Structure formats: structure tokens, C-alpha cells
Amino acid sequence: MYAEQDSSSLAQAAVRRLMNDFSWRLLSEEEFVSRCVSTLAEKPAMKPIQACQNVYSRVLYEACRDVNRQEQAYLELHYYLYRIARSRRWNVAEDATQGALLLIFEHIQACRNPETFLRFAQFKLLQAIKTMNRRLGREEEPLVDDLPRPPSETQIPFDDDTENLWNCIRQIWAAHPRARNQLRAVLWKYFDELSDEEIARRINKTPAQVQVLRSRGLEKLRRCMTERERLSSRRSSDHRSARSK
Q1: What's the number of domains the chain is made of?
Q2: Do residues 11 and 52 make contact, with C-beta atoms less than 8 angstroms apart?
Q3: What CA–CA distance (Å, rounded) separates 67 from 152?
């Protein structure tokens, strides 16, 4: 009983924060909280804020494909992406946001998981910002601090929890300088969509070596994420045990 009350209060706090920060109105607060609580019941190790973001990601995805709710959905998506763009590239924020919305509209069917739609949208924003930078004659290396945080939905072959992925990228980048080309091979492939030939040119390797580097980078990320998931599950279990006493 107490666990249910705690889950509900945490979900309500997360919902109010998100609705206040991003003016999300496609769901009533009551319905939003109810869906978040259901998600947390299915995935107790998930953070309430992430669970609620996943819930609204699905709502936005469905609304963007519904002619009756599409206008409101894209208005909310514009505000969400503009805030990110403004914090990253304030001088091209509006143009980049409009470019991202166009990319989302054209490629929404490429989002394979509606619960990651917001991260998919962030990825399109990243692409739009890079397009704007190229038009302005700016060449910027994307790794590591030039990427949005948390990173966008990408084709990187991992489960959800991109915050966990991002933490691992930073951890490995800082702790293992020799592994940085491995991370470059991963990030330039999946975030910047560069070919192995272009990546090889940038780091002075052959395409075959790039493939090996990327494989090793992915393996390091998998190990790191598995360990973080294990520690997170243990903390959640300890927390539930403490509350039940």
C-alpha cells in the first residue's frame, strides 16, 4: 500500500514538473499520472521522470499521426525542441527547430518505438542543427559535449534508458583515452551517419579498422550499461525492502 502511494506521489510530482516545463496538454493531469503509475508498476527500476517522459512520448507520437490532434502535437513538439535548441545553439534555434519539425513530419514512420519518440525528435533536431552549422560554414566535432543531453533516439543497438548510455559514453571517454576512437567510430556512425570511409579518413584508419573499433566500442558500452542497470536494480530493491520494514 505504502509503495503504491509513494509511486503515485512521485508520478504526480514528475507529471506536474513536465506539464509546467513544456506546457504538455494532450493528457489531463489525472490521466497522465495514472499512465505513469502503470508504467512504474511494470518497470519498478525506472525513474518516475523517465517513465512519464516515455508515456508522453507515446501520446505525442500518436497525436502527430492523428489529423484531429496533429496541430496541438506539433505546437508542443516545437516548444520542447526550441528549448533544447536555444540552450545549445541560440543563434539558430528557431530555424533548427523548424527544420527538425519538417524532418519529423517526413520521417515519423522511422520511429520504431513510440515511447522513444521524444528522443527520436531530439535526434532530428541534432541533424537540423548540424545542417545549419554547415550552411554557416562551421565544422564541429560532435564528440562529446556537442551532443544533446540526454542523447537522442538513434540506431545504436541498445534498449531504452539513453541517459544510462550517455553516462557510459562520458565515463569511458574520461577513463579510457585509448578507447576514444572506439567511441568516435560508434557516435559518428549512429549520430552523424558518417560512412566507414569518412570515419577512417578522420581518424587515419582503414574502413576495416573502423569496424573493429566500433565493435569494441559497442562492447564496452554494453558492459558499462549492464553494470549500471545491475546497480540501479539493486538500489531499487534495497529501497523497496527498506520501505516495507
Answers
A1: 1
A2: yes
A3: 26
**109: DSSP letter:** G
Contact 146, 140 (CB under 8 A): yes
Task: Look at residue 91 and tell me if it is in a domain.
Answer: no
Residue 58 belongs to a domain: no
| pLDDT digit string, tens, across residues 10-57 | 999 999 999 998 999 999 999 999 999 999 998 888 889 889 999 999
> Is 172 part of a structural domain of the chain?
yes
50, 57 in Cβ contact below 8 A?
A: no
- How many Å apart are CA 44 and CA 38, to the nearest integer? 10
Residue of 135, 147, 145 lying closest to 92 (CA atoms): 135
8 Å CB contact between 148 and 125? yes
Note down the domain range covering 180. Answer: 143-245
What's the whole-model pTM score?
A: 0.62
- Backbone phi, psi, residue 211, to 5°: -60, -40
